[in-house]
Specification:
The protein is α/β, with parallel strands linked by helices and 520 residues long. 40% of the residues lie in helices and 16% in strands. It contains 21 helices and 18 strands.
Length: 520
């Protein structure tokens, strides 16, 4: 009995580029995988979609055929379907083009998923059952699922570590349950993720522990391409298999595919291990929870750890944005009595021109214009989450805990304005304001630091502010006066939210832009 390798770059890797590999690129990747002697190539998703020849999403096998090479050697082709995102009536009877369909389902819709599996098999395809997040199943739940699987007898059943939380003892436990209870004719598959940087070592453990009398399939992708943090690297497991078994795979062909196509994609949209995704794996959570908190651009890894640790068991598997938003707000929202701070800053700004400095790259592009304004108007200068070295501020405003922590480690003489989510040092003059009051509007929460400072200005009855360095996010551009201030906030989405918030604020306060901005 053998171990076979399945490449899922064009399917799982599609989470990185929205499956828009390009027609010629997809064909080239498939050809190089065929030349490498890959046992299976998963060419994409079956989806209810508008067909685009440049994307690896298909309504049927007829569309999928268009990217397959004429010479297929010994490689077999597979495609994946989520039972609730594909109309099975669109799937043609198997004509031999695609050997297998891989079907996924959650722990809460097992029966619906298995009905879909039956329909796939009735059309003549081999079928892989890929239950999402098997780490979320108890032993008894796995045994109950195996009992149902044995009645259907699909081609394969995969151990899918959806949230990347598996360690060696987990793999041994789950594999043992399958090996001793799964019908002997059913292949065991393995699909790993890289949250804990363990996928390669776990794959080796799997090879060592497997029963040699049962066929197995191990998934990988080129350079581990897949939704962050990624998958098992196909090139590594191919090379390992060549050492473990007789030389079978042409690794050079896979390396060519990486050089020709994957490196460019990774440069634009990186994947790989990050501490935040290791934390989501630590608690066996849907990765969108970590993505949501990373996207805030406000939190350190330890803060994300604290928030993720509070997610209840019944919320772990299916992402609930409203729920994680509430946990985030509870963590951030430390209410205080800020009346004294408001009164003090209102007296300070009274009768003064106000200049707010954000850390956009336009500060370096238009220094003379900004200096001229300062010399002429003698404004009160407030910088946002940084102390400008070119334009000395009167105050530094912080609503970002990471930026404040960095700031307070060095000696500074500039007094601080901070929101109550920031844990201040008490070592310098500081005025603290309620985070909740500045982050919320009638449209919900938005805790962009400049927006919060503008709301503070409005709250203390400032009629006019001038702004510099409030540039907005643009792709393929250094958006910051210093790359140190770059955040992980999703730029284009942030632009939309900022523009909307600025539009609302203009009803309360006049905003003049000294430097070019997307929000003028």
């Amino acid at each position: 009995m053998s171990i076979r390798l399945l490449d899922c770059t064009l399917r799982d890797g599609g989470y990185i580029n929205d499956w828009k590999f390009g027609y010629r690129t997809a064909k080239s990747i498939i050809q190089k995988l065929v030349d490498s002697n890959a046992d299976y190539v998963e060419v994409g998703f079956l989806r209810n979609c508008s067909y685009d020849k440049n994307a690896t999403l298909f309504n049927n096998i007829a569309e999928l055929k268009k990217i397959l090479p004429r010479e297929q050697k010994n490689t077999k082709f597979t495609v994946m379907a989520l039972h609730n995102k594909y109309d099975i009536t669109k799937l043609e009877p198997n004509d031999g083009t695609v050997e297998a369909v891989r079907v996924t389902f959650h722990d809460y819709d097992i029966d619906e998923g298995l009905e879909f599996v039956k329909k796939v098999m009735e059309k003549g395809y081999k079928c892989f059952c890929n239950p999402i997040n098997i780490m979320g199943y108890s032993d008894q739940e796995i045994l109950n699922l195996i009992q149902k699987i044995n009645q259907i007898k699909p081609y394969a059943f995969s151990i899918v570590d959806t949230f990347g939380s598996m360690i060696k003892s987990d793999l041994l436990r789950i594999y043992s349950l399958l090996e001793h209870n799964l019908d002997k004719s059913i292949v065991i598959g393995l699909h790993l993720h890289e949250n804990l940087s363990l996928s390669y070592s776990l794959a080796q453990e799997f090879i060592g522990m497997r029963n040699v009398n049962r066929d197995c399939v191990i998934d990988g992708s080129l350079m581990g391409m897949g939704r962050v943090p990624g998958n098992l690297c196909l090139e590594l497991i191919m090379d390992y298999m060549n050492k473990y078994d007789s030389v079978k795979y042409n690794v050079d062909s896979v390396l060519d595919a990486i050089d020709d196509h994957i490196l460019a994609i990774r440069k634009e949209s990186p994947w790989g291990y990050t501490t935040e995704y290791s934390l989501s794996a630590k608690y066996n959570l849907h990765r969108n929870y970590a993505e949501y908190l990373i996207g805030k651009g406000q939190l350190k890894a330890k803060d994300i750890n604290h928030i993720l640790s509070n997610i209840s068991k019944d919320k772990k598997t299916a992402f609930d944005e409203a729920y994680i938003e509430r946990l985030y707000l509870e963590y951030q929202d430390k209410m205080i009595d800020d009346e004294k701070s408001l009164n003090q800053i209102e007296k300070t700004v009274s009768g003064r021109k106000i200049l707010l400095l954000a850390p956009g790259s336009s500060l370096k592009a238009y220094p003379d214009k900004i200096r001229s304004f300062i010399e002429k108007e003698q404004p009160l200068v407030i910088s946002v989450n940084f102390e400008s070295s070119d334009f000395k501020p009167d105050y530094v405003f912080f609503s970002n805990r990471k930026r404040y922590d960095d700031y307070q480690k060095e000696p500074h003489n500039v007094p601080v304005l901070a929101t109550s989510n920031v844990i201040t040092s008490g070592q310098r003059e500081e005025l603290i304001f309620n985070y909740h009051d500045l982050a919320f509007s009638e449209h919900g929460i938005f805790d962009n630091s400049m927006i919060m400072l503008l709301r503070l200005m409005s709250r203390i009855h400032v009629d006019l502010v001038s702004v510099a360095g409030f540039d907005g996010f643009e792709r393929k551009k250094n958006n910051y006066v210093d790359t140190y201030y770059k955040t992980t906030e999703k730029g284009l989405l942030a632009n939309e939210k900022i523009a909307s918030a600025v539009s609302e604020l203009k009803k309360e306060i006049k905003i003049e832009f000294l430097t070019p901005s997307l929000f003028q």
